Structure to design on (635 residues):
C-alpha cells in the first residue's frame, strides 16, 4: 500500500516506531477505521464529512453564490488552509481521463449543473493544470453554459504537473485572483 | 564546447577505458564489430542520456557486467556521469543528481551522422517528425533569450579558443553555471515539455476515439469536443515553437543539399492543418517553406476546424488524423518527392543536409559547438563529397569519426592545402584547422581502444 506524501524512508521510520509502540499502533488503526467508516460525501458539495452536511456548506457566513470546483476532497482542505476562498465548493471526484476509462458520468458534473442553476453567481474551476484537469475544465464550462452562470478558471499560476494539493497559500491567492473568464 | 574525455566501464564489449579526445577531429578505426559504434553510443549516451539507436539501457550493459558507468567532461571541466545497474539509471552533472532527463538534455550538444540517416529521407513520416522535434529541442531557447547574455562574459574571461566563443550555456566565470542553466530551463516551458503535454492530450483523445464505446454513454459529443479543445490548446504552442525554428532548419538543409548535390531541392513543412504556404515560390528551389498563420487564434481556429472535419474518419480509425504529430517534412526535386523518386545518392545527401542543419540550429541558438558522431558515412560517398562533408562537419564542431579503414593521412593534408584557398567560410577556425584535421587517431579492436601516435 502507498500513501500520498509518504516516501519509502518515512514509511520505514513510521513502521519501526509503531513496532516499538504496539498500543499506539492499535489506537491509530482503530481511529483510522472509525474515521473511514464515519466519513461520507457531503450531499451538497461531495467533500467528505462526518456530519449530515459539511462544515463549509453549513456555514451561513460563507458566500453561497460562489462555487469553487475541485477534483478531490483533499483540494478543499488545501484551499481552506489558504483561507482565500470564501464561497462554497464542489468536488467532482476525479477528472476526465479516457485512458483510465473515466468519462463525464464518473464525475459529479450533473450535480454541479443543477447547483449552478439554483442561485449561483460564479463558478470557479480549480482543477489542476494538467492535460486532464484542463480538458475537464473545458468540459465543465461547456456544460454550465446553458445555466448562464459566470464561469472562470483559476490562473495558471501553478506549474504543470504540480498538484493543487502541494501549492502554497501565495500561489493559491495568485491563482484565484488571476482567474479568467471561460 | 568539445568533449575532453570519456571513461567507460561495462559498456557492451568495450574494456574499461578512458579516452582523451582532440578538440577537433578524432578518427576511430578498426574492424567491424570491434566496438567503434559502441564508443559513439557511449558519447551519445553521456550527452543525451540515451542511445542514438533507441536501444534500451539494458542492451548497453555488457554481457555478464553488473554496472555500466559512463562519465566524461568537456573542455571547461563540466562533468557528467551516467550509471546504470541493470535496473536504475542515475545521472549526475557536476556530481549533482539530475532528476529529469530534460534538465540534463543538451549539456553537451551532439549531432549524429549515420548511414541509416538515409531513412530520414525515405523512411516513414514519424522518423522525420522525431528528427525535427529532437533538433528543435537540442537548439533550446534561441540566442535572444538569456542564454546569450553570458556569452560575452565567457569569451572575455575564458581561455582563448575558438570553440569557446560559441558556448553560452549560461556559464559565467565565477563557476555558477549550474544554477543559471536550471533557471533558464525553468524560466520558459521547454519544447520537450510542450510536446510531451501535447502527446498526452492526443493519447487521451485517441483513447476516447478508439474506445469503441461511442454512443454508449462514453465519448459523448461534448466529451469529444472537450478533448479536441485540449488537443488544440496543447498543440498550438508546439506549432508555434516549430514555426519559430523550422524555416531556418529547412533553409539550412536546402542550402547544404544544394552544395553537396550540385542541384537544388525544396525542403518544406507539410502541415495537416493546412494553411497558406509561406511566401516562397517553388522555383526558388533552395528555400525551406513553412505554413504561415497570421495569429495564434487563426492557427487554433484552423486546427479546431480540421479536427472537426476529420472527426468521423478519426473515429473509424481510432486516432486523430491532424495536428503536429501527423505533419511531415517533404523534400522535392523538380516537384517529385525525393522520398519516393530520389536516387539513393540524393536521399543520402538530403539526410546529411538535414543533420548539418541540425548542427546549424544548435550553433545559431548561441549554444556550444556540437560534437559530431559519424559512423561510416563518408564511405558511401565519392571522394569529393566525403571531403566536403568532413569539412562542413569540422567547421561546425568536434568530430568523432568511426570507420573500418584508417583515414588516409595524406588525404587530410591535401584537404588542408586546398582548403586554404577554396574555403571562404572558415575564417575564425582556420588557426586551429590544421590541428583539427590531423586530430587524433584511435585503434579499436576486440574491445580495446588505443591511441595511435
Ligand atoms: Zn459540503
Amino acid at each position: 500500500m502507498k500513501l500520498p506524501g509518504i516516501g519509502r524512508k518515512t514509511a520505514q521510520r513510521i513502521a519501526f516506531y509503531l513496532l516499538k509502540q504496539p498500543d499506539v499502533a492499535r489506537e491509530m488503526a482503530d481511529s483510522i477505521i472509525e474515521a473511514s467508516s464515519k466519513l461520507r460525501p457531503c450531499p451538497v458539495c461531495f467533500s467528505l464529512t462526518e456530519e449530515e452536511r459539511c462544515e463549509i456548506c453549513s456555514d451561513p457566513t460563507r458566500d453561497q453564490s460562489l462555487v469553487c470546483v475541485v477534483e478531490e476532497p483533499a483540494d478543499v482542505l488545501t484551499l481552506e488552509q489558504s483561507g482565500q476562498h470564501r464561497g462554497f465548493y464542489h468536488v467532482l471526484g476525479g477528472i476526465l481521463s479516457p485512458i483510465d476509462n473515466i468519462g463525464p458520468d464518473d464525475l459529479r458534473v450533473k450535480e454541479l449543473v443543477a447547483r449552478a442553476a439554483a442561485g449561483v453567481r460564479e463558478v470557479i474551476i480549480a482543477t489542476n493544470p494538467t492535460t486532464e484537469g484542463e480538458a475537464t475544465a473545458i468540459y465543465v464550462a461547456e456544460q454550465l453554459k446553458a445555466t448562464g452562470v459566470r464561469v472562470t478558471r483559476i490562473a495558471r499560476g501553478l506549474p504543470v504537473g504540480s498538484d493543487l494539493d502541494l501549492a502554497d497559500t501565495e500561489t493559491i491567492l495568485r491563482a484565484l485572483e488571476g482567474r479568467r473568464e471561460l | 564546447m568539445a568533449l575532453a574525455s570519456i571513461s567507460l566501464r561495462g559498456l557492451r564489449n568495450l574494456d574499461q577505458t578512458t579516452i582523451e579526445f582532440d578538440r577537433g577531429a578524432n578518427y576511430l578505426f578498426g574492424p567491424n564489430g570491434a566496438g567503434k559504434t559502441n564508443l559513439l553510443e557511449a558519447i551519445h549516451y553521456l550527452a543525451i542520456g540515451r542511445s542514438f539507436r533507441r536501444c534500451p539501457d539494458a542492451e548497453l550493459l555488457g554481457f555478464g557486467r553488473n554496472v555500466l558507468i559512463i562519465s566524461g567532461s568537456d573542455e571547461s571541466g563540466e562533468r557528467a556521469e551516467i550509471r546504470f545497474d541493470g535496473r536504475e539509471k542515475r545521472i549526475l552533472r557536476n556530481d549533482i543528481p539530475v532528476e529529469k532527463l530534460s534538465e540534463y538534455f543538451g549539456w553537451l550538444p551532439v549531432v549524429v551522422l549515420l548511414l541509416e540517416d538515409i531513412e530520414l529521407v525515405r523512411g516513414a513520416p514519424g522518423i522525420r517528425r522525431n528528427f525535427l522535434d529532437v533538433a528543435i529541442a537540442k537548439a533550446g531557447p534561441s540566442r535572444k533569450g538569456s542564454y546569450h547574455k553570458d556569452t560575452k562574459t565567457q569569451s572575455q574571461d575564458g581561455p582563448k579558443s575558438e570553440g569557446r566563443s560559441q558556448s553560452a550555456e549560461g556559464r559565467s566565470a565565477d563557476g555558477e553555471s549550474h544554477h543559471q542553466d536550471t533557471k533558464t530551463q525553468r524560466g520558459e516551458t521547454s519544447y520537450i515539455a510542450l510536446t510531451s503535454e501535447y502527446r498526452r492530450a492526443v493519447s487521451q483523445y485517441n483513447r476516447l476515439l478508439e474506445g469503441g464505446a461511442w454512443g454508449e454513454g462514453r465519448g459523448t459529443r461534448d466529451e469529444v469536443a472537450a478533448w479536441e479543445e485540449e488537443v488544440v490548446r496543447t498543440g498550438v504552442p508546439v506549432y508555434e515553437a516549430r514555426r519559430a525554428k523550422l524555416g531556418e532548419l529547412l533553409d539550412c538543409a536546402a542550402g547544404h543539399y544544394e552544395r553537396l548535390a550540385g542541384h537544388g531541392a525544396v525542403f518544406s513543412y507539410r502541415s495537416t492543418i493546412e494553411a497558406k504556404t509561406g511566401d516562397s515560390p517553388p522555383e526558388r528551389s533552395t528555400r525551406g517553406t513553412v505554413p504561415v498563420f497570421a495569429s495564434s487564434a487563426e492557427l487554433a481556429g484552423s486546427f479546431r476546424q480540421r479536427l472537426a472535419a476529420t472527426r468521423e474518419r478519426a473515429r473509424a480509425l481510432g486516432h486523430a488524423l491532424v495536428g503536429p504529430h501527423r505533419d511531415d517534412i517533404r523534400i522535392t526535386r523538380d516537384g517529385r518527392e525525393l522520398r519516393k523518386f530520389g536516387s539513393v545518392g540524393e536521399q543520402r545527401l538530403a539526410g546529411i543536409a538535414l543533420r548539418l542543419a541540425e548542427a546549424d540550429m544548435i550553433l545559431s541558438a548561441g549554444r556550444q559547438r556540437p560534437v559530431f558522431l559519424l559512423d561510416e558515412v563518408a564511405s558511401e560517398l565519392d571522394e569529393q563529397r566525403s571531403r566536403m562533408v568532413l569539412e562542413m562537419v569540422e567547421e561546425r564542431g568536434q568530430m568523432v569519426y568511426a570507420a573500418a579503414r584508417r583515414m588516409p593521412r595524406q588525404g587530410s593534408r591535401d584537404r588542408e592545402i586546398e582548403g586554404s584557398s577554396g574555403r571562404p567560410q572558415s575564417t575564425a577556425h582556420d588557426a586551429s584547422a590544421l590541428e583539427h584535421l590531423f586530430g587524433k587517431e584511435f585503434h579499436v579492436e576486440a574491445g580495446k581502444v588505443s591511441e595511435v601516435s
Q: What stands out?
A: Residues A 42, 44-45, 47, 53-54, 56-57 surround zinc ion (CB under 6 Å). Residues 143-187, 213-218, 278-286, 410-436 of chain B have pLDDT under 50 and may be disordered. The domain at 191-341 of chain B is CATH 1.20.1050.90 (Glutathione S-transferase Yfyf (Class Pi); Chain A, domain 2).
